[in-house]
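Trying the structure run again after the queue cleared.
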Amino acid sequence: MAASVERPRLPRLTKKNDATGFIFYRSVYVLDRNTDLETAVLDKTQLDPLTYRHAMSRLAGHVHIVTAEHRGERRGVTITAACSVSDNPATLLVCLNATNPKNGIFTDSGSFALNLLGADQMDLAHVFSGKNHVDPTARFEHGTWGTLETGAPVLQQAVAAFDCRLIDIKTVATHIVLFGEVVAVTLGEQKPALVYLDRDYRTL
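Done. C-alpha cells:
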C-alpha cells in the first residue's frame, strides 16, 4: 500500500481592524515540508489592490517630471516613483505605467531625464500629470526646457535634474522600471521640495 502524502495546508486569513477602523486582511502561510517554495508562492492569496493603494498614499514621495525625446517627439510625465540605486556608478530608477502606450518613448529613446520639482512648481506638476487637461503635445510649452548630454528634456528651473543613459528595463506587473546611469547633473536653486502625501501635494 502506497504511503499517504500529507496535503499542503492552505493559508489562514486573519481579519484585523486598525486604529481608523479600516478593515484589512492578512494571509498567514505555513510552509509544509512536502511543499516547495514555488508552489507556496503561487497558492497564496493576493493583497487587495485598494488596500495597498490606501496604505501607499501615506508614503510621502518627492514629485518629479521624467522626460524623454525620440525622433523629435518629447514626452514628460509627473511621477513620485523614483529613487537612487547606486552612487558608483551613479544610477537611479523610475517607474512608469506600462499600460499607457505613449510611455513607449521611454524605452525607445535610450535615455531619460529626472527633474525634481520645488514647492513653487505645483502648477507644472499638474500640467505633466494631465490633471488640468493640457494636451500632452503642449506640455513643454510650460517651463523652460533645455538638454544636457543625452538630449532628454531638462527643466532649467528644476531643483536638480539627472540626465540618464538607459541601461536596463524591467517589467513588473502593470509598470516598467527604467534603470539609468546618470551622465550629467544640474543643480538649481535650493528651496522647499514638492512632495505628494495623502493624495495631495505638500511642501517640505
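The longest strand covers residues 160-172. Worth checking whether this holds up in the mutant runs.
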